[in-house]
Amino acid sequence: MSTPAPTPDRPGTRALRGLAVLGSVAAALLVWLVGDPVLGAEMVFTQGDQDPQDVGAAAIVLFSAAAALLGWALLAVLERFASARARTVWTAVAVVVLALSCVPLLDVEATGGTKAVLALTHFAVAAVLIPLLRRASPRVAAPAAPVTAGPAA
After folding, report:
1. Pick from 2, 9, 20, 122: CA 20 to 30 A from residue 104's CA?
2. Cβ 114 vs Cβ 42: under 8 Å
3. What is the pLDDT of residue 41?
């Protein structure tokens, strides 16, 4: 039994992955810009006994870039060690991480607008990152069917 070989990298794969990271950061920042300065959502939350934390543009850029780069890294590892199912496994993990990233929003003290903007930033990152990184991941070629000789005469 042979292992399927990945198709060769398409030109621009790295560029598309970089665009996915930059695009996801831009999408999160756009949501923050609409929510905080434009609509006036007070982007401050309190968690537990901690002091109130202000979510500014720098935090949005930092956390969305970190999430996007970690997503890229995980996809690269999966392509290296589980190439036959890398895209599928990565997509499932990405969706689970998106869902889990919203759980802390249930436990913070903040206005409804603040929680909505924070949740939308998570979904904005995922909406850009997941399809673009999937697209940048090479498809795995199906293994060739074994050639068999016809019946012996």
Report:
1. 20
2. yes
3. 86
Q: Are 5 and 141 in contact (CB under 8 A)?
A: yes
What confidence tens digit (pLDDT) does each residue in 85-106 have? Answer: 999 999 999 999 999 999 999 9
CB 68 within 8 A of CB 25: yes
The answer to whether residues 140 and 84 touch, using CB atoms and an 8 Å cutoff, is yes
Residue 132, token pair as written in the block: 């673009």
Amino acid, single-letter form, for residue 82: A
Half-sphere CA count of 137, side-chain side, radius 13 A: 28
How far is Cα 134 from Cα 121, in angstroms, rounded to an integer?
Answer: 20
Q: Tokens for 51, please give them.
A: 């002091």
Ranked by mean pLDDT, which of 2-16, 26-40, 61-75 comes out on top? Answer: 61-75
